[in-house]
Amino acid sequence: MSAENGPPSTPGRPRPSSIALLFRKFCVLETQEDLGHSITDSGSLESETDAAMSVILCTAGYDHTIRFWEALSGICSRTIQHPDSQVNRLCITPDKRFLAAAGHNNVKLFDIKSTNPNPVITFEGHTNNITGVAFHCEGKWMVTSSEDGTVKVWDTRTGSLQRNYVHKAPVNDVVIHPNQGELISGDHAGMVRVWDLGESVCTHQLIPEEDTAVLSVSVASDGSLLCAGNKKGNVYLWRMVQTDETTRIIPVCTFQAHTNYLTRVLLSPDVKHLATCSADHTAKVWNLDADYGPAKVALKQWKEQEALKPPVETPTEEPVAPAEAPAKSSDLLRIFGTPAQDRDLLRITDNPPRQDTPQQTFTSSPDGPPMDPVNHTLFLETTLATHQRWVWDCAFSADSAYLVTVSSDHYARLWELSSGVVIRQYSGHHRGAICVALNDYSEPR
């Protein structure tokens, strides 16, 4: 299987967002109506309308229905029945032609522009709940993960199975690296695996926390970061460094994002934000930008306060002979200098190790995102807290300025992240909404 793709997008230069154009037009129209101006003489607004109409937003869940929404009005424009089972995950092809709906043991592919309620193709082969789905950048193939313990790669044109990778535990999520040549999956045993599609092998195994299920994984749009979240609410962040022969995975930081079950982690398209969803009824947005103003101010104030504290005298202790190191001590790494924080402990191994790659030494990354020295987390930008039950899934807009969340309270909500305000609420599901897909790119990805 080839990795046919162009270079990944540059972080910090977000792609055009149709949702942003939609609300810009809405605000302009309101202003023109207030001033008594004509709203029919603006070609630019018409082009923005065309872009806005290309927003694909859909949700699904336990009521066995898939709903398409008009982003601005909040109206449900189309409903597709999914009688086989609940829908666990949704994914839109990059060209906006098809929607994949992952159910109990199959994935159905629907034509977005057609009124046909039947799938154009069904992918059969999994034997348990399908937990993750993602598309190749040109839609040529699709990857799925399942509680049956496998990650499968499918030809989207024929529906045939191309690859089958086996975990030793149920697989909870899978994503495609932007280089289109690697997959990253997380499982119930606490393992994060990186799969090389070209050589069809697992090149890395990461165990962020022993015997703690990894429920969600996310990779940055430029391939620079890998993120995983587990059932204890802990988040792990690694830097991915590509070389000619391999990918080095370097720990950056780890922190507790929620004190309850974590359901989703998602890196924003501009790689400046990290969204987390949880059973605690909230979604949170964390900062990854080294130039984040509030972080600079907080760090400066903290350093000034620390400088005013009197030095603490430590008692002199007799030197102790070092104990014999365990055989695999090189696999252990602490990110921060506080030994008491067990969540700062990562175990990283290669399985199977590449014969042509020497043993790698993993060290903490000095160029990571700013960390809050008081809470020992990334800096929290906003907490989205109006849902009444578990928040299961989320999706960023193309410009990273908006976030859509879905919850067991039956609602989907569109948030403006700069203000933390709900812009639209989407009401129609009569049971829990557990998955969302959004594609509002104004140009093909």
TrEMBL record:
PROSITE patterns, per this entry?
A: WD_REPEATS_1, WD_REPEATS_2, WD_REPEATS_REGION
Renumbered to this chain, the Low complexity biased-composition regions fall at 317-327
UniProt lists the family membership as follows: Belongs to the WD repeat LST8 family.
UniProt biased composition (Polar residues): 352-366
Q: Which UniProt keywords apply?
A: Repeat, WD repeat
Give the InterPro entries listed for this entry.
Answer: MLST8, WD40/YVTN_repeat-like_dom_sf, WD40_PAC1, WD40_repeat_CS, WD40_repeat_dom_sf, WD40_rpt
Q: Which organism is it from?
A: Penicillium brevicompactum
What this protein is called in its record is Target of rapamycin complex subunit LST8
Q: Which Gene3D superfamilies match?
A: YVTN repeat-like/Quinoprotein amine dehydrogenase
GO CC, one annotated term: TORC1 complex
Task: List every stretch annotated Disordered.
Answer: 307-327, 345-374
Matching entries from Pfam families are given as:
WD40 (PF00400)
User: Which terms does the UniProt entry file under GO BP?
Assistant: regulation of actin cytoskeleton organization; TOR signaling
| Repeat region (WD), residues | 123-164, 164-205, 255-289, 384-425
